[in-house]
Amino acid sequence: MVRIVEGIGIAVLILLAALALLFVRRVAIARRGGTIELGVRLSTMVPGRGWSAGLARFAGDDLRWYRIFSFWPGPRRVLSRRGLSVDRRRTPDPAELLVLPPDWVIVRCVSRQAPVEIAMAERALTGFLSWVEAAPPGESTPETRPYRYRTG
């Protein structure tokens, strides 16, 4: 009986340590400033699925996205604003509302790497579009300006 209680105690201690590590990681990412809550669609194989929650941090010409439930200290994805354009924006469909807040907006971006769908709050979208538009001289062309997106 004592061994069972010790085993449960150790398991609880490990779980609490893991949760504390996730919390410290999140605080360390957010402490640098310029962070927003951002969902990234990692897979498009099943309609409405494939979304992962995270924090994104603006760092110069990069938007670094960190998964919320990850122990990895570095970003999972990095979007460079060089050559980045906003293709369109839309509201989440009913299947996506199961994992995304209803007041969020989904934005499809096209870059030199590959298209990516990101989701964020409407108020964060304004800052994101400003960041994209503030591309270095020569990088922002009429085709890559964020206000040329299509709704729907």
Question: What topology does this entry show?
Answer:
Blueprint: H1 2-31, E1 35-41, E2 51-59, E3 62-67, E4 77-80, E5 85-90, E6 104-110, E7 116-121, H2 122-133, E8 150-151
Parallel strand pairs: 5-8
Antiparallel strand pairs: 1-2, 1-7, 2-3, 3-4, 5-6, 6-7
What brief labels describe this structure?
152 residues; alpha+beta; 8-stranded mixed β-sheet; 8 strands; disordered C terminus; transmembrane helix; membrane
Number of discrete helical segments:
2
Measured between the Cα atoms of the first and last residue, the distance is 61 Å
The shape, in one word, is: elongated
Helix and strand sequence: HEEEEEEEHE
Strand content: 25-35%
The helicity comes to 25-40%
Per DSSP E runs of 2 or more residues, the count of β-strands stands at: 8
Mean pLDDT: 83
Low-pLDDT stretches are 140-152
Radius of gyration: 19 Å
Structural class, from secondary structure content? alpha+beta
Strand order of the largest sheet: 4-3-2-1-7-6-5-8
Q: What characterizes the major β-sheet?
A: 8 strands, mixed
InterPro entries: DUF2550
Keywords: Membrane, Transmembrane, Transmembrane helix
Pfam family, one: DUF2550
Transmembrane segments: 6-24
